[in-house]
Amino acid sequence: MSTFSGLNTAMTGLNAARVGLETTGNNIINVNTPGYTRQRAELTAVGALASTGLIASRPGLGQGVSVAGISRLADAHLEARLNATSGAVGQADTRAAALMDIEATLREPGENGLSAILGKFWNAWEGVANQPGEAAPATVLISSANDVAARLKLMHGELSDQWSAQHSALETMTAEVNSTAARVAELNASITSTIAAGGNANELLDQRGMLVTRLAELAGATSGENEGVFEVKIGNDVLVSGKTPHELTIAGGTSLETSAAGGAPTVNFDVQGGRIAGALSLLGPANDTGTGGAIAQMASSLDAVAKNLAETVNAAHQQGITGDDLPGGNFFDPTATTAAGLTVVVSSANELATRSKDGGKLDGSNALAIAQLATEKGGADDQWSTVVVSSGLAAQAEAQQSVNAALAHNAAASQQQAATGVSLDEENVALLAYQHAYQGAARVMTAVDEMLDTLINRTGIVGR
Question: Which of 103, 117, 321, 458 makes an SS bond possible with 395, Cβ 3.0 to 4.6 Å?
Fold first, then answer.
């Protein structure tokens, strides 16, 4: 081994320390960069040269240190957990906010709630029963009935607005998923070409990781390698495969689908997580089991209350006799018994069937019987009370679910940040270590230089 090889060994130390210093400095500078993953210079010892000839029996020394690469200290397990909790918290937040909006639409309890307005309606029937045939109490009754119809119509309209708002949000989120998926595909291509050329793709991997996390929050997406190809999936369906993204569209207002180029069959995506899953669960149609879309289910409940009210009041009203000595007719329009269409058809005191068939002019027993419908088991009030309680319990449960999901997400984010984020204390220690390593390598080079100076310039001059 030549004495001059000591200079090369020292040079490798200088280079390794310099790369370590630069890597540590890059970490420190990016301490507040969103999505940045801590990096580290990977150092390996350079082996000894093969010995031949006269020096073959001498022990060989290493040739210094080399930089094997700049590793990205990511943790796939923690990233997967973070993405899973991102999808859960996105779905829970969306549903919790929507159910709170639905509950706010009911305005219960309060003077503007349907319960209070129905109470005034039934009280108005008692007023008519006390003064049958009088215009004033009849006017109050008809006005109260119109207030009930107006309140039901207003709530139904607000639910329709909420449905439209959720659908608009779904369209926006779907467009963002498409643009994000396209960007992930572009990054896949850039990462592949950079690594193939021997470059460092750590920053590109960070960017892709942030985009995948966003896709997880939006649609519960997962990612991984499949035979060397990076894929992003929603459920079991592939959203991005390598350089190829798929574009999602909204089908029928309440589901997502995509079709590949070239006339490939349509694929319906089973979205089970993220904000999109929350929106889809809100936008679904109502069903008889009460497990349909929350907004449509509430609208269906309003229709059921309106129908119950119209049918029970009409049936009771038809049992009496009006001030014109005619059999009582319908109080509400029987052809429009939805929340949006409930209509009062009685317009004057003479049309109210306040007395029973056997009663006299001053008999108000039938009106009193209608007023007693307020306490009837299974009546409109009882049904509405059930709707309000169910809505409140659902909103409370979803709010708690949102809190639980947020706690799990925060824990996952903290663990992921602790493992892959930049610690200034740790980087400062590394900075000092590389600084001393650089100074040590420089000192070795200085010592070798002095040795060579003695050998070259001073050997053979003794005694002159």
Answer: 103
Say yes or no: 212 and 355 in one domain.
no
DSSP character string of 338-357: STTT--B---SGGG---B-T
Strand order in the sheet with 266-269: 249-251, 255-259, 266-269
> Which residues lie below 8 Å from residue 193, measured CB to CB, with a gap of 6+?
none
| Tens of pLDDT, residues 403-449 | 999 999 999 999 999 889 999 999 999 999 999 999 998 998 888 87
Alpha carbon 171 to its chain centroid, in Å, reads: 14
Q: Which two tokens stand for residue 49?
A: 């040269």
User: Which of 262, 287, 312 marks a domain boundary?
Assistant: 287
Residues sharing a CB contact under 8 Å with residue 444, sequence separation 6 or more, in sequence order? 6, 9, 10, 13
Query: Residue 352 class from Cβ within 10 Å (0-12 exposed, 13-18 middle, 19+ buried)?
Result: buried
Q: Considering the entire predicted model, what is its pTM?
A: 0.84
> Would residue 464 count as lying in a domain?
no
| Closest alpha carbon to 150 in 128, 120, 117 | 117
- Do 156 and 302 meet the contact criterion of CB atoms below 8 Å apart? yes
Cα–Cα distance between 373 and 291 in angstroms, integer? Answer: 29
The answer to whether residues 92 and 226 belong to one domain is: yes
pLDDT tens-place string over residues 209-250: 999 999 999 999 999 888 889 999 988 888 898 898 888 888
What six digits make up the tokens of 354?
């306040």
